[in-house]
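Technical note accompanying the year-one report. For the benefit of new consortium partners, we illustrate the data format agreed upon in the data management plan: each record pairs a sequence with a structure-token string. No post-processing was applied to the example shown here.
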Amino acid sequence: MRITYVEGVSPAKWLRIWADRRPDRPLETDRVLESEQLEALASGSADMAFVRLPIDETGLHVIALWEEVAVAALPRDHAYGDAESIELADLEGEMTAPVQATTELTLELVAAGTGYAIVPHSLARLYARRDVKAVPVSDAPTTRIALVWPLDRDDDDTQEFVGVVRGRTAKSSRGADAPDEPAPVKKPARPSTPKKPAARVFRSSRARRPPPRKGRR
């Protein structure tokens, strides 16, 4: 079985689990550019793919896996280069770098001072360079990574790999007629907001006197 994965995705964890469970069925993997992420599936040279949404989902099973935080790729000497995070409004009026065929080429233009670029954090980390700063953008849309495969492919190996990605144990199995359950999408980590200190309640140190007893009649 051959699996492709888009740049910025690391399927190593699932490949290790598969190798432990199915040493008799080694997987072939190949990293592809985002612009090519569906070509191998369409040609039949790949059986499954980790892709970055959105895509044309026609004829495909799609399981959303996690979200990616967006960052602003800025030239090293940019005014916001050392900021912990910014908002899109902070970049209003600034030039954006011309989008290239690959994120790596786009970041080269950012480094050259042609403008900024909004990219997934995973890609900024993959193509990190000293002359480009990656700053989280708190209100920028996130992107999603998904596992996809053709609707007409539902063999045991495919379903077993889907189970590995979903975290099923080796002893668990998916019934042949069981419907696909939507996988919970992992939320990207966000900066935590400090909690306000709880209000202190002061109690009087004087003991309360019991009410006087009523005399018998």
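Partners are asked to follow this layout when depositing records. The chain is about 20% helix and 20% strand.
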